[in-house]
Amino acid sequence: MLHGDRAVRRRWMALLSLGLLLAPRGSSAQEAAAAAEAAGVRAFSLHEAITYAEKRNPDLLVTRARVQAARAAALVPRAQWLPSVGATAQIIGSTVNNSTATVLSNPRVDLPRIGATRISAEPDFTPYASTLVAVGMRQELFDFGRIAAQTAALDAQAELERQRAEGAKLDVALRVTEAYWAVRAAKSVARAADEAAGRAAAHRDAARAGVGAGLRTPVDLARAEAEVARFEVAKVRAQGSLAAAQAVFAAVVGVPDAALDAGDEASEDEAPGALDELLERAREGSAEIHEAKARVDLAKAETRAAAALMRPDLFLTAAISGRAGGATPSNGSTVGGHGFAPLVPNWDVGVVLSVPIYDPVLVARRDALREVEDVREAELQATRVMQEAAVRQAHLGLVAARQALAALSRAAAAARANHEQAEARFKAGLGTMLELVDAEALRVEAEVERAVGGFAVARARAALQRAVAEVR
After folding, report:
1. Would you say residue 4 has pLDDT above 50?
2. N or C terminus: fewer CB in 10 A for the chain?
3. Are both 453 and 371 inside the same structural domain?
4. Residue 323: helix, strand or coil by DSSP?
5. In the Cβ-directed half-sphere of 268, how many Cα atoms lie within 13 Å?
6. How many structural domains compose the chain?
7. pTM here?
8. What are the CB-based long-range contacts (under 8 Å, 24+) for 225-231?
9. What are phi and psi of 278, to 5 degrees?
10. Same structural domain, 158 and 224
11. What coarse category fits the chief subcellular location reported for this protein (predicted)?
12. pLDDT by residue (tens digit) across 35-84?
């Protein structure tokens, strides 16, 4: 009887030691947070990450530079209203039959024909010198809407670049959101792997104690050792995936750090809203539709600018010049220098009306741009259809992901309950190590699937927000 009491007492002491070994350990989430803090990894909430990316993301810096360049280009046609000043200096050797002044035309100075006529019955092929120094000015008086049309075309180009920048802003917000939730999911997987590794180690220690107490077989210990090794490998891989996700998050946000952690955020489970409301918001605020409209406006503005080039131009011109020709004029008067010194001064002021009557190149360009207008209108209609389809697809994807997440949450809860029961049976000596290992594997798989399902919901919601042009 005494021997039987000792056996029972030893059995209960062994079971007590098993219970202590299987007791829950410290919070792995707190340990992970402490480890991240010790490693010096900054953490951003989703709102902080998007706000920071809008200022520092390299892609957005490029798009803003393009907008500024387009706005600067739109100022170029307006400069035609400012006076232009030019100068020329010429020295020419040529024959001067019936002319004692020889000058070359140039686009900087408007020069009227000034000079005495040399009358000669016989052609004279003797070269004479001619010189010219002149300064001229031209001022636009009335352009008949040509400059305004050119300015409107470049303003439309700047607006198109601005709409592209808005679309790029939404794209960056989408990438930041996906990277943020990828870090959150990777942290959940790493936490599940870490907790599983801890439980596997506790199970191994319990199996070792059970073998020492004669309550377990060596097979149970060997299986427990194998499970510890498997979960240690899974833990290392999960930590590597987390580090990679943090590196991607840092790069997308644009921080100079090598890694960026995802801080706490509100619940990831939010109602997507009614489909009709989402479609209406997409029609009003879709970046793709706004960009397509900007392309239509640009095509129309370029057509008007091309047509405006065929309008008249009225401008003021003035010049001050000194010139001389080496040939003797008909009146016999000569100046010193034999044409090599521009000693004869002149000035002129005039108002010029230039009328392009017909230019086939300008007409062909105008007609070609009208065809481009039709193309841009067709693209706008196609964009409307494709955007509605994108909203519908994103909405259905979010609904499906939320339904799957609910099922995964139930599966995770059931797996945890199953694991707790298997663990209780193992503590009481009623369950086997194989049963506990299977329950552990089922729990870890369910927790990982729950984390992946949460990421799928967050990514689907971000895609829907991008489709309706929302930035969280």
Report:
1. no
2. N
3. yes
4. strand
5. 28
6. 2
7. 0.73
8. 227/200, 227/203, 227/437, 227/440, 228/197, 228/200, 228/201, 228/203, 228/204, 230/200, 231/193, 231/196, 231/197, 231/200, 231/444
9. -65, -40
10. yes
11. membrane
12. 554 456 888 888 889 889 988 888 899 999 999 999 999 999 999 999 99
